[in-house]
Amino acid sequence: MTMLTRRQMIAATLATTLLPTRSFAGLKPVTIALDWTPNTNHIGLHVAQAKGFYANAGVDVEILPYSDTSAGALVASRVADFGILSSLGLFTQRTAGADLVATYAIMQTETGRLVFNADRTDIKSPRDLDGLTYGGFGSAWENALIGSIIRHDGGKGEYETVTLGTSAYEALANGAVDFTLEVYTWEGVKAELDGRPQRAFRYADFGVPDQHSNFIGSSEAYLKENPEAASGFVTATRRGYEFAVDHPDEAAEILIAANKDVLTDHKLIRASLQALIDGHYFRSKEGAVGRIDPAKIDAIGTYLFDAGVLKDGDGKKVEERPDFSTYFTNDFQTA
Description:
Blueprint: H1 3-18, E1 28-33, H2 43-50, H3 53-56, E2 59-64, H4 71-76, E3 82-86, H5 87-95, E4 101-105, E5 112-117, E6 133-136, H6 140-152, E7 160-163, H7 168-173, E8 179-183, H8 184-193, E9 198-201, E10 214-218, H9 220-225, H10 227-246, H11 248-258, H12 266-278, H13 294-306
Parallel strand pairs: 1-2, 1-3, 6-7, 6-8
Antiparallel strand pairs: 3-10, 4-10, 5-8, 5-9
Helix pairs in contact: 2-10, 2-11, 8-12, 10-11, 11-12
InterPro entries: NMT1/THI5 (IPR027939), SsuA/THI5 (IPR015168)
Keywords: Iron, Metal-binding, Pyridoxal phosphate, Signal, Thiamine biosynthesis, Transferase
Organism: Borborobacter arsenicus
């Protein structure tokens, strides 16, 4: 099946339900696809919408409902103008030929971590994970990541894997698996609220480059055709995240009100947002919000290339290191 045919199929099946049906006079319609069901990672979008930042920037933004099709696929096929992309998704899909480019870093530093129950006195450092059981999610990235963390600490990088998806968190809590990976600002915060003490290893402490965990991205085709709308959207989105950092109580209420049927655990929402603020995820210690760090892009891209995770459109490991400077742009973030 050709790439053109896949794009046509995606567009045909999703366009009628995902494309916006409203547009305010004089405003340019812009759509953004979510990477998951609504959560605190998306708070800047809802704040920018509710506070009128988008309208003031000349764009009418439609936040598309989460679907089984990845945001990257929707953006590359031009079903959505923008989408929230994981770091791994950006690098793997772009390398495989998808028209994707990151325009905004939601996270200024890595939110993921390797976790295990706090009462595991036998686990003192990553090399102690050799021979244990990992509750995983089924990606090549996980194996490369965990193996390199263990080997960096002097271990062999040999462990058992049980693919469980999101059930891994329940399995960890009841002791069915020994360790897993989680997003601290969501699953980690929930574990704290639920009274399930955990200990963790940060990736960057064991040889894995720190990275922007996720991005807001678009296609080069869209950015070339709609530079003013793109700049207005990205800049207004940055204002939304800045507002969330400076006014967390109001921002949390906006997020909850926009997703009241989904976000019913208000305590988790507020605690997660506070963790994002306190950990300098939305705004770095140096004050950066949204800016993509070229050094971080190059470092994590090189790590993925060296680990053999990056593959071409035929599923073959790329032999030549890509030019990672083409994977992102800060040009649409204006003052």
